[in-house]
Structure formats: structure tokens, C-alpha cells
Amino acid sequence: MKPTRRDVLALGGGAVASVFFTPIPWKLLDDASIWTQNWSWIPQPVKGPVEWKESACALCPASCGLRVKMAGGYAVGLSGKDGALCALGYGAHQMNWHPQRLTVVRHNGQPSTWAAAEAAFQKACAEGPVAIVDGRPGRGASQVYRQFAEKTPGALYAVIRTPEEEALRPVAAIAGVPVERLGYDLENTKLVLSLSAPLLEGWGGPQRVQRLWPAMQIIQAEAELSRTGTCAARRVQIKPGSEAMLAMALAHALLDEKLATGPRPAMSLAEAAALAGVELDEVKGLARTLAAQRPSVVISARPEPAVAALNVLLGAVGAEGGIVARNGAPAPAKSMDELPGTLRAALLDSTVPWDRRPAGAQEVFRFAAWRGGDEQGWMLPAPGFLEEATDNPATGARAEALLKPPAGVKTTVAFLGGELPAAQPVESAIVPLTCKLAAWPSAAPNGQDGRTAAWTAAWTPAVLAPLATKLHQESKLMPAGGGRRQA
Questions:
Q1: Do 351 and 284 sit in the same domain of this protein?
Q2: DSSP letters along 215-261, please?
Q3: Could you give phi then psi for residue 238, rounded to 5 degrees?
Q4: What angle (nearest 5°) sits at the alpha carbon of residue 264, between those of residues 258 and 267?
Q5: pTM of the predicted model, to two decimals?
Q6: How far apart are the C-alpha atoms of 227 and 232, rounded to whole Å?
Q7: 337 in the same domain as 288
Q8: Which of 5, 90, 104, 268 has its CA 20 to 30 A from that of 148?
């Protein structure tokens, strides 16, 4: 009998359906998974004695403690010394072997030499003002950068503000102290009201948050569900960009119930609550909770003057468990965003994120361990992960140089002709801070500041190791395609 079109389609459909009941597709998926975790450029562990060494991660200012598994002079595994690591930290030992590793000097996308780069930088210093930009101030290397700027005519030393510093800028303006001295005393906080701040997505370092989380309560107010909102003790739904409105509504509620004293916002309680999208009863209940569970503090993802004022009303500024001032902080420095656009050249340390560069048409000398962005100007190969000793006086951590860097790389300190000073631990004690709110600040709507803090991207490498990519996606820390995973 001649087969009909119906017979052919039925046979084809049955064959496709039967594939899923055979091991064929699952074996292909398994093979693909194994292949992607064994790229040719990842070194295979050598056979020999295994030893464990201790160091600190230098990929971000948190400087989480590391236990490094070593074999034959190579790092073959990482684990947290005092707790968990972020997904990037677990796979960071693979990054030095990435094919985008920068090992030769490049100028405008073409290979060059260290001699040519040094001659170009000396010429720039002689012709006009230059700036040294430090992405991680307070280190021993930072002292070298400051000294170079002081002895070079017209040179400037500038820093990249951390997300925490960006959020605290309005508090610094009210208190009249440099923002470098301020910080959140989470170790003594009972309650944190987070206004869209991703506290559990990487802010402050995973080891610190993991250690403090059981002892403090987090209330998350946000427009879209985040990982922090999922794990928080309570979540408050607000309208997008209405963090300042909720802060003003809470201020009214605190003053109405005589839980605080101070100036009132010009906007009424009902109007602020409506703009925030929160019911009046919920606002009042939240205000009572903040007052009853002191020490409490409000943290915003953006530099909001209204949030700073709310913290003053709560008595959280200058108090244990709130926002405190510390001695031993780095000396005040100009932010990179404040540099003039007339610079002759700018030298960027390897801790400066790839997406950050001074405004203007100056010549750029960027130190980096990996290629991953605009290559206009000079690209100078820097030591990679655990290939350079560096300190973090703020945390007392020190990253040891456990791995040998490839030939042709150089530190920024060596390029400037300096010498890395010995590590000097700094006692970071809390100092008295007085802060009085004379009038409620007039705040610009969210988004007009232009420097909203990217808390989970304060330091972003040019490349990710395969293990880090896999962990980021599976842990929902970094979904495929970028952005925060939605509920």
C-alpha cells in the first residue's frame, strides 16, 4: 500500500517523541557540559603533592579570606577562609589563563613596548597636567600614587568612589565630614531598612553579610523582587524610583507619633505615601518598627538626601549600629568624576573598572590584566589574580603573591618608578560625630544624580572564568543576558 502524507507525519512525530525516551539527548547535554568546563586554555592540575595556602581575594574591596589549594605552583581550587565566596571568587583562579589575558603592551590596538609607553607618559607629564586614578584607595600602592602626584607639577590624584561612599554622600554633606570617613556599623545594627539596595547580592562582601545576617533583621522596600527581597524578613512593595517618597512618608509618621524630633518634609504624609505606592497604615507600622528596634539604619542604593535626613531623625547618624565616622580612613581625595576635561593624560590603575574613564580627550594609560573594552590609548599588562601582593588596611586583609605572573607584565607602582611600602595595619576606631538637621533637604528625583551606585558591579573584570559564569547563572547572581533576575 502506498504511504500517505498522514503516515509520514505520524512516523516522523513518533520518531521525534521517542528521542526523549532514549539516552541520546541527555548524553549530548552531558558531553557539552563536560566540554565547556574543560576549555583547552584551562591548565590541567599537575600530579604531585598538594598544599593549602592562605591569602585574600583582591577582586573587590571586601577582600574576603581565601584558602588556596596549590599543586605544582598552580592554584587548582579556592574556598572561603571565613565563610562563603561570591561566584566570581570561586572561579577566579581560572582567569589568569583566559585567552584575553593581556601580556604585551598595546597602543591604539597595536602591539607596542614598555619603553615606548614610558616615553609617552614622561612626555605627557612634561606637556600638561596628568591624573593618577586609583580604584582602591588606602593601599600601600595608593601612597606611591599620592607621592607621585605631589612631586609632579600639575599632577592630580583621584579615586573611584565605592558604592557605599556614593550612598553616603548626602550624609557627609549634612554632617560636614569627608565621605571617606563614613561607614555603616552593621556589626551593631538590629534592623536595616533597605531601599532597593542589593544587600544580599554582593554588597559589603559575602563573608561579612553571611556573618551578620543572622543577628540583624532586613526589611526590603523595592519595586521589583530581588534576591534580597526574597531572603528578607519582610518585603514592602513600592513604586519604581519612589525611595525618597517613602523616606519622607516615614519621617512624617515618626514625627506625628512623637518618635522623633526635627523638621518636616514639605510634602504631606498622604501625598508621599501615595507617590511611594504604600498604604498609610503600612507606613505608620514601618515607622514604629524602625523606632522600636533601634539601633536601626536606612540604606539606599542611591545617594538620596531624603534617606540621609531620615537617618538623622532616627538618631542613626553618629550612633553605634548606624552611620559612623572612623579614623584611619584614607585621606580625602578628588573623585574621578570631578577631574577637569583638560588633562593631558590619565593613568588608570588596574583596579579601575573597564567602563570608567575620565571625561575629555586626554591620552589614557590603562593597566589591566585582561582585554575587555575600549583599547584606545595605551593598554599596559598588569599582574592577574594572586600574582601581586596587595594590602587592604580597611579590613586588615592582605593578598599574597602566590602565583608567578607571565613575562612582560608590570605593576603600576613599578611603572611610576616607586617602591611598594611595607603593609601598615590601621586601627579604624569609631570617632564622635555630631549631625543636626536644620531643614529637610530638597531632593532631586531619582536618576537625576547621574551616579547611581551599581553595588554589585563595583569591580567588574574584563572576562569571567567558565566556573564563575556557571555559578553566577545557577545561583541567580548574574542571569544570562545581564541584569537582575525578576520574579
A1: no
A2: GSEEEEEESS--HHHHHSSEEEE--TT-HHHHHHHHHHHHHHTTS--
A3: -130, 170
A4: 125
A5: 0.77
A6: 8
A7: no
A8: 104
Taking residue 344's Cβ as centre, other Cβ atoms within 10 Å add up to 17
Local structure of residue 373 (DSSP, 8 states): S
Of 29-33, 60-64, 88-92, 274-278, give the lowest mean pLDDT range: 29-33
Distances from the Cα of 243 to the Cαs of 22, 147, 418, in angstroms?
A: 53, 41, 46
Q: Which three cell numbers stand for residue 14?
A: 513518533
Quick one: cell of 442?
530638597
DSSP string, 159-221: EPPPHHHHHHHHHHHHHTS-GGGEEE-GGG-SEEEEES--GGGTTT-HHHHHHHGGGSEEEEE
The stretch 138-154 carries a mean pLDDT of: 91
Contact 399, 389 (CB under 8 A): yes
Sign of CA dihedral 263, 192, 198, 221: negative
Residue 65, in any domain of the structure: no
Do 193 and 287 have their domain in common? Answer: yes
Strand partners for 67:
54, 79
| Pair 173, 140 in one domain | no
Strand locations in 18-175 (E):
50-56, 65-71, 74-80, 106-107, 110-111, 130-134, 156-159
Give per-residue pLDDT as tens, 210-228.
Answer: 778 788 899 999 999 988 8
From CA 146, how far away is CA 139, in angstroms rounded?
Answer: 11
Judge contact between 178 and 165, C-beta under 8 A. no
Averaged pLDDT score across all residues of the chain: 82
| Pair (133, 179) in one structural domain | no
Nearest to 130 by CA among 408, 410, 344: 344
Determine the length of the chain: 487
Q: What is the DSSP letter of 101?
A: B
% of residues, the chain, pLDDT over 90: 44
pLDDT for res 103: 92
Distance between CA atoms of 290 and 278, rounded to whole angstroms? 16
Range(s) of the domain holding residue 145: 106-161+330-415
Does residue 323 contact residue 185 with C-beta atoms inside 8 Å?
yes
CA distance 473 to 181: 36
Q: What is the mean pLDDT of residues 343-363?
A: 88
Per-residue pLDDT, 268? 95
